[in-house]
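Hi Y.,

Following your request, here is the sequence exactly as I used it, all 116 residues.
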Amino acid sequence: MQVQVVKSKIHRVKVTQADLNYIGSVTIDEDLMDASNLIEGERVQIVNINNGERLETYVIKGERKSGVICLNGPAARRCAPGDIVIIIGYGFMDFEAAKSFKPSLCFPNEETNMLD
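Below is the corresponding structure, written out as tokens. Let me know if you'd prefer a different format.
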């Protein structure tokens, strides 16, 4: 049996931009992508701490060391600059393997979105 588990997580990061006039997605600083084991094009869930919104979109690689977290397209209506979000990537794996799997968790500085 396969189960879906948390594979990657960027915990409590600040939205830096919202661009309504874009096709869609979330732009994430490449350093944060590496630290959380996310790849460009991967589907993610975004949980907004400020308003309780949950949405799904896909990742676009952002400039390294920029701290960018930009919600693009329709997602820009559900998260505003300054909001704190959690970004979660999921993966499917064998039930038994999932019992011992350890996800890649990233805890950036909430003010700068940089890794300490």
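The chain has a mean pLDDT of 97.

Thanks again,
Q.
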